[in-house]
Specification:
GO terms for molecular function: ATP binding; ATP hydrolysis activity. Keywords: ATP-binding, Nucleotide-binding, Transport. By secondary structure, the chain is α/β, with parallel strands linked by helices. It has one domain: P-loop containing nucleotide triphosphate hydrolases (Rossmann fold), CATH 3.40.50. The N and C termini lie far apart (39 Å). Helices cover 32% and strands 30% of the residues. Strand 9 (204-209) and strand 10 (212-217) form a beta hairpin. The chain has helices at 41-48, 71-77, 93-98, 113-125, 141-154, 171-184, 195-201, 219-222, 225-232; strands at 3-12, 15-25, 30-34, 56-61, 64-65, 78-81, 159-163, 187-191, 204-209, 212-217, 234-240, 247-256. The protein binds adenosine-5'-triphosphate.
Length: 257
């Protein structure tokens, strides 16, 4: 499902922190949002999953303004892994994941066989199948993250919105997550701080700086040493990954730009 963000203005307590953002994620495309701390990545994503309401501009899902959709209709199309990840659920892992099925249920309906199958499948997709009966609050940060991702998968959305999903994950689980997202071929909006991961995963990158998009395009075209210096304030060489051929950014960890 295509996502279009048109001239988006949005912020907090009457002050816009994102102003005039245009961004398109084509059907099946993985669109990466990158940018320094505070550049507005989470704010844009929160607008797509309707946690925030634009002060101007709009978000279209397959051509329809999300404000024309009911909360249930939105939840059947868009699932999010927000940056605020609760740890206080006194629920089991399976109970957290089955919450992803709520948009498909009538009031007071229980879980049916299909719900249970989808929960099992979503848990195995994130490598947590053996943990279904554990208490969510007793899991590590990375494990909780994978469970919340499983909940988003269980929602069977047409669009996935992931805010820093690799946060807390060890390198193996980061690689597995990226492989899983690539294999899904689902429209995905994802914010990432790891620019090498973004370069390897995303079809297109959108670089945010002070609330606007300053560059958009395929990773190879966008991630130039000049852009890395101007937007991120770092010195870096961009080469080719010897194993994958993806762009590989080698940062100078000794001094800034
Ligand atoms: N809940 C909030 N209330 C008020 N201001 C906020 C809130 N969340 C974010 N902001 C402000 O909005 C601006 C953009 O923040 P946002 O979280 O969208 O940036 P980000 O690019 O996701 O940053 P990071 O990389 O640090 O996660 C920042 O100046 C931030 O301080």
């Amino acid at each position: 499902m295509k996502v279009e963000i048109e001239d988006l203005h949005v912020g907090y307590a009457g002050r816009d922190v994102v102003a005039g953002v245009h961004l398109v994620a084509a059907e099946g495309e993985i669109a990466g949002l990158v940018g320094p701390n505070g550049s507005g990545k989470s704010t844009v994503l929160r607008t797509v999953y309707r946690h925030l309401r634009p002060t101007a501009g709009r978000v279209l899902l397959a051509g329809t303004d999300i404000r024309a959709l009911s909360p249930g209709q939105t939840a059947r199309q868009v699932a999010a892994l927000p940056q605020e990840r609760g740890s206080d659920f006194e629920l089991t892992v399976a109970e957290v994941v089955v919450m992803g099925r709520t948009p498909y249920k009538r009031a007071f309906a229980g879980d049916d066989l299909r719900d249970r199958e989808i929960v099992a499948r979503s848990l195995s997709a994130v490598g947590m199948a053996r943990h279904a009966s554990r208490r969510f609050s007793a899991l590590s940060g990375g494990e909780r993250q994978r469970i919340l991702l499983a909940r988003a998968f269980a929602q069977e959305p047409r669009v996935l919105v992931l805010d820093e999903p690799t946060n807390h994950l060890d390198i193996q689980h980061q690689v597995e997550l990226l492989a899983l997202l690539r294999a899904q071929r689902r429209t995905t909006l994802i914010s990432l701080h790891d620019l090498n991961a973004a370069a390897s995963l995303c079809d297109r990158l959108h670089v945010l700086h002070q609330g606007t998009v300053v560059a958009s395009g395929p990773p190879r075209a966008v991630l130039t040493p000049d852009l890395l210096a101007e937007v991120f304030g770092v010195r870096a060489a961009v080469t080719e990954h010897p194993l994958t051929g993806d762009p590989l950014i080698a940062f100078d960890h000794r001094r800034t730009a």
